Amino acid sequence: MAASNTTLTKIQTWFIPECISPSLSGSDEDSIRELACILEKSGKVTDCSQVIQDILIREKTAEPFILNSIFIPHALSKGVSDFCAAAGIHKDADSLHIIIMVVWPENSRSNLKKIAALIRSLSKANILEGLKNAEDSKGISDYLNSLLPADAI
To answer: Domains of the chain: which residue ranges?
Structure first.
């Protein structure tokens, strides 16, 4: 049971306010770069350039994952020492969408289960409606963490 509680704690704290951008701008590639810099400033990324490169290569070689206005760039990377996630809200004149970037070390392929759990949770939620009520980075992180199920892994 202790292992389950440890997993639960890690999952429910994927999103921390320091790794949330409530106002991304530019292209999806610009947003990926911005989110990687946010993760680097938080200490979660050891090599920002490597993370950006790994994410962009993965997005060019595999179909990007887009779900109900949610773009989820993700990759294995030598530029991180542990599983990490960042999120941002991209607003333009006509739409609102969220980008959730997830990166994990190359030696830990088992994190695909975490990505699958995230996708299952997001597919069931009206995430854009929920985000309208989140006023800042903490509100966004709290909302995103609330979507992650207790039995995710």
So the answer is: 19-144
Q: Coil, strand, or helix at residue 99?
A: strand
| DSSP symbols for 36-96 | HHHHHHTT-BS-HHHHHHHHHHHHHHSPPPEETTEE--EEEETTBSS-EEEEEEEE-SS-E
The owner of tokens 């490597």 is 50
Which structure tokens are listed for 138?
Answer: 């903490």
Q: With contact defined as beta carbons under 8 Å apart, do 103 and 58 qualify? A: no
Q: Which helix (H) or strand (E) holds 102?
A: strand 96-105
Give domain 19-144's CATH architecture. Answer: 3-Layer(aba) Sandwich (3.40)
> Distance between CA atoms of 99 and 105, rounded to whole angstroms?
20
pLDDT (tens place) for every residue of the chain, 153 residues total: 334 334 434 444 788 999 999 889 888 899 999 999 999 998 889 999 999 999 999 988 887 677 778 888 999 999 998 888 999 988 776 777 889 999 988 876 667 777 777 777 777 767 777 777 787 899 989 888 888 766 443
90 φ/ψ sector (left φ>0, alpha ψ -120 to 50, else beta): beta
How many other β-carbons are positioned within 10 Å of the β-carbon of residue 84?
Answer: 21
